[in-house]
Amino acid sequence: MDTGLRGKVVVVTGAAAGIGRATALRFAREGGKVAGFDVNEAAGAPLVEEIGKAGGEGRFVRVDVASAASVEAGVKTVLERWGRIDVLVNNAGSGPAARSHEVTEALFD
Questions:
Q1: Centroid of chain to Cα 62
Q2: What are the CA-CA distances from residue 95 to residues 6, 42, 89, 99, 100 (Å)?
Q3: Could you state, in chain order, the average pLDDT of each consecutive group of 10 residues for the chain (109 residues)?
Q4: Which among 2, 25, 70, 74 would be 20 to 30 A from 14, CA to CA?
Q5: In angstroms, rounded to a whole number, what is the distance separating the alpha carbons of residues 44 and 102?
Q6: For residue 58, with 0-12 CB atoms within 10 Å meaning exposed, 13-18 middle and 19 or more buried, which class applies?
Q7: CA pair distance 77, 49, nearest whole angstrom
Q8: Angle subtended at Cα 38 by Cα 36 and Cα 44, rounded to the nearest 5 degrees
Q9: How is the beta sheet containing 87-89 ordered, strand by strand?
């Protein structure tokens, strides 16, 4: 069954381990172009390798989601590589119960 994810550009925060890693690999199995954002640089190369083995195209980007500047730099990296972002999985950390587009940096902090 075609899920329509082949070639979609996906950003997964907290992609180095746990649910984020599993999510990144699932999108890879669906043929996605997956950017894994995380602070754990040591996990980056193994994640990208697994994404490739799963059938996707991968990129690890060191991003600290607690820093707006770091997130902006990560997004810029993805846009420079693939020109767009189709899917965002905001898995890293936890925060206030609100819609993600309504959370200001002050509220998040």
A1: 10
A2: 31, 25, 14, 11, 10
A3: 84 95 96 97 96 96 94 98 96 71 75
A4: 2
A5: 30
A6: buried
A7: 19
A8: 65
A9: 57-62, 33-38, 9-13, 87-89
Q: Which of 52, 47, 44, 11 is nearest to 28 (CA)?
A: 52
Residue 61 identity:
V
The encoded tokens of residue 35 equal: 């950017």
Instruction: Specify the amino acid at residue 35.
Output: A
Q: Which amino acid, residue 40?
A: N
